[in-house]
Design brief:
The chain is mainly beta. It has one helix and five strands, in the order βββαββ. The chain has a three-stranded antiparallel beta sheet, covered by helices on one side. Strands 2-3 form a two-stranded antiparallel ribbon. The longest helix is centred in the middle third of the chain and has 10 residues. The mean pLDDT is 97.
Length: 73
């Protein structure tokens, strides 16, 4: 199990969010890109509020904000 941030819409930060070999995390205009999932997750854990990019229902990447942290397989 791994503890990951979850957004209000139920999406969560996980390895499936790797796009073009990178994870995009952080506030808009201050985003950071990581090639390693564990490094990106560590960055999110260190932030006051975790934010990351994930595709919406149309496949367009947008920033979401964590409302909780949950254990996921």
């Amino acid at each position: 199990m791994i503890n990951v941030p979850v957004a209000a819409d139920g999406t969560f930060f996980g390895p499936h969010l790797c796009r073009r070999g990178k994870f995009t995390v952080g506030d808009k205009k201050e985003e950071k890109k990581f090639t390693d999932f564990d490094e990106a997750l560590a960055y999110l854990k260190a932030q006051p509020t975790a934010r990351w990019r994930r595709p919406n229902h149309r496949g367009i990447p947008g920033i979401v904000t964590a409302v909780a942290w949950e254990d996921r397989p």
